[in-house]
C-alpha cells in the first residue's frame, strides 16, 4: 500500500446532504465488506491489518475515496488469495520473540506488533496510539510498552500449558533510541510525559522478562502493520510474516 491509499474524513459526505443520501447503497456495502475484512485480518491475514484498520475508521460515514480504497483492498486480496498463514515451527528460532514498531505521524502514531512462537506467528495487532508523540523515539517506545503487555500474556499462556519460557524474551525494535531508553532509568526528561509506560517497560526489562534488541528496518517484521509500504518492501516482509518464505507473489498489488 502506498500514499494513494491514505484517506481522511474530509472526503466523507455531509450527513443529511444529497451526496450522503446518494451514497447510501455504497455505504451499506462498504460496512459489510469492511466487517468481513476485519474478521479476515484478525484471523489469517496479518498483512491486511493496517489497511483494514484504516478502512474501519470511516465505516460510519465513508466517502468515494474510502470506497475506492476498499475496492483496491479486495483486488489485492483476490490476487493474493493463495497466500495463507503457515505455522511451521523451527527449532532454531527463539521460543518466543516479540517485534514492535510504530509509525511517527503528525497526528496519532500507529503501533504495530507481532509475537512469534518458534518462528510461527502467534499474534499480531495494529493500533492507533491515544496521544500525539513528540518524537519518533517516543512513538517507538510507547509501541514497545504495548508490545511488552502482549508479550507478558503470551509468556503466561505458555506457562499455563506447561511450556514455560526460560530467560528474557527478545523485544525487537528498529529504533536504537527506544532500545537505549528501556535501559536508562535516568532519562526522565525524554519520558516524563509517558512516565507510566516508561516505568512499565523498564521494570520488565530490569526483571529480565524482556531483552530489547535492535534490528534493522528491513528486518522489522512489524513494519507492515504500521504504515503503507511500497511494493518492494511489502513483498519482502509479507512472506516472512506469513511463514511462507520462498512462495512469492508475482504481479500482486501492494495492499
Characterization of the model:
With 255 residues, this protein is an alpha/beta fold. The chain contains nine helices and five strands. It folds into two domains: 3-79, no CATH class; 96-219, Nucleotidyltransferase, domain 5 (2-Layer Sandwich), CATH 3.30.420. Helix 2 packs antiparallel against helix 3, helix 5 packs across helix 6 (176-183) and helix 5 (136-160) packs across helix 8 (195-206). The termini are close together.
Low-confidence stretches: 247-255
Topology pattern, helix = H, strand = E? HHHHEEEHEHHHEH
Second CATH tier, the architecture of the largest domain: 2-Layer Sandwich
Classified by CATH, the class of the largest domain is Alpha Beta
Multimerization status: single chain
Write down the CATH topology of the largest domain. Nucleotidyltransferase, domain 5
What would a concise description of this structure say?
With 255 residues, this protein is α/β, with parallel strands linked by helices. The chain contains 9 helices and 5 strands; from the N terminus they run H-H-H-H-E-E-E-H-E-H-H-H-E-H.
Entry keywords:
255 residues, alpha/beta, Nucleotidyltransferase, domain 5, five-stranded mixed β-sheet, 9 helices, globular
List the helices and strands and how they pair.
Elements lengths: L17 H5 L1 H20 L5 H8 L7 H16 L16 E8 L6 E8 L2 E9 L7 H25 L8 E5 L2 H8 L4 H4 L3 H12 L3 E5 L16 H12 L13
Parallel strand pairs: 1-4, 4-5
Antiparallel strand pairs: 1-2, 2-3
Helix pairs in contact: 2-3, 5-6, 5-8
